[in-house]
């Protein structure tokens, strides 16, 4: 039973749990005088139901009651799931039991404070006020903490994302690359890198305008990212109209399959490009390099190798991928400290 509406008013709600009607009446009066709303339960089981329904700010809990006593109830209250909206309310035990053992039991079952009957009302009022103020402060802190976490996550997403295409940006790519380079070196597994560049994109902008160019880059980005499937793969916007794809645990054959899929998916977009010198639609050129990294190698040369393959693809007519064979460049890899 709830006397006033908890959600409509901001006043804290105290859940009074006692099997004696007179005791409940006295507690209700005292709480109302303090300006709190009140709900009442006559035993532990009712208390659990009302607690879940009303999410009170404080529970005043009698120890000895029929159906379910206060200790059992208090223990069960601690196991109820808490959500962002429902914060665990403090429990203050009110009982005639004065023995040391029952005081210990009350705290062991999760009560945060304890008063004995007959009630010293001034003491009870002070404790209730303090517990409610503390609970409200904790709730505010938890809320602020959560908002801070959300803001940090949003900030992190923003710092790692290219605003035009939604792909990972260069910063995020560099971090991921360095991490995967080290991991593949440890695991002695192949790492592949694909650099992709839109063909005759300057002509595209000149013909259709810069905004259409932006829309084109967005579609190209989607087609590239949908071509890579594994969670450790990463497609990123590497520069203006250049994209990079990192493929850990992927050899030359696997990387060539992905490169081919990217070319096919871009052609399938069928974005008209009337000023392209090689096709009616937008196409990409790709350079692929694969190697098993070694910690002492300078990873920049790996990019140089992919770049060389990309420019070969441009030279050989564009709208294609070229693979830089690992044998052709790994022998030139220089130890970092030389
Ligand atoms: P190639 O086939 O040799 O790659 O020729 P290209 O015209 O694509 O290469 P070039 O490097 O000469 O031109 C790249 C163009 O990409 C020029 C630049 O204005 C355009 N570009 C770079 N970033 C953006 C962007 O964010 N939006 C738009 N619309 N255009 C961009
Ligand atoms: Mg280009």
TrEMBL record:
Residue ranges annotated as coiled coil are: 134-161
What sequence ranges are listed for the domain GGDEF?
189-326
Q: Does the keyword rRNA-binding apply?
A: no
The record's keywords, sorted A to Z, are: Coiled coil, Phosphoprotein
**InterPro entries cross-referenced by the UniProt entry:** CheY-like_superfamily, Diguanylate_Cyclase, GGDEF_dom, Nucleotide_cyclase, Rev_trsase/Diguanyl_cyclase, Sig_transdc_resp-reg_receiver
Question: Which residues are reported to carry the modification 4-aspartylphosphate?
Answer: 62
Give the protein's recorded name: PleD family two-component system response regulator
């Amino acid at each position: 039973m709830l006397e006033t509406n908890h959600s409509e008013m901001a006043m804290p709600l105290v859940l009074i749990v006692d099997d004696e009607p007179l005791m409940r009446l006295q507690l209700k009066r005292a709480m109302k005088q303090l300006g709190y709303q009140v709900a009442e339960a006559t035993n532990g089981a009712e208390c659990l139901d009302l607690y879940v329904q009303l999410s009170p700010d404080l529970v005043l809990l009698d120890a000895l009651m029929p159906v379910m006593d206060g200790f059992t109830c208090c223990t069960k209250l601690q196991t109820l799931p808490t959500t962002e909206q429902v914060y665990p309310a403090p429990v203050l035990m009110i009982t005639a039991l004065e023995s040391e053992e029952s005081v210990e039991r009350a705290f062991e079952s999760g009560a945060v404070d304890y008063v004995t009957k007959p009630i010293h009302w001034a003491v009870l009022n002070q404790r209730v006020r303090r517990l409610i103020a503390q609970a409200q402060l904790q709730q505010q802190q938890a809320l602020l903490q959560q908002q801070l976490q959300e803001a940090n996550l949003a900030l992190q997403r923003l710092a790692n994302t290219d605003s035009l295409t939604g792909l990972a940006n260069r910063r995020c790519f560099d971090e991921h690359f360095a991490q995967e380079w080290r991991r593949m070196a440890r695991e002695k597994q192949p790492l592949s890198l694909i650099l992709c560049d839109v063909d005759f994109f300057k002509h595209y902008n000149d013909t259709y305008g810069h905004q259409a160019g932006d829309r084109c880059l967005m579609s190209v980005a989607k087609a590239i990212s949908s071509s890579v499937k594994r969670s450790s793969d990463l497609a990123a916007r590497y520069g203006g109209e250049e994209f990079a794809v990192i493929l850990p645990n992927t050899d030359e054959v696997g990387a060539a399959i992905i490169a081919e899929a990217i070319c096919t998916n871009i052609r399938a977009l069928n974005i008209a490009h009337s000023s392209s010198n090689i096709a009616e639609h937008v196409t990409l050129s790709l350079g692929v390099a694969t190697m098993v990294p070694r910690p002492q190698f300078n990873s920049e040369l790996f990019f140089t190798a992919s770049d060389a393959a990309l420019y070969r693809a441009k030279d050989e007519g564009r709208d294609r991928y070229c693979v830089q064979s690992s044998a052709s460049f790994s022998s030139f890899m220089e130890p970092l400290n030389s």
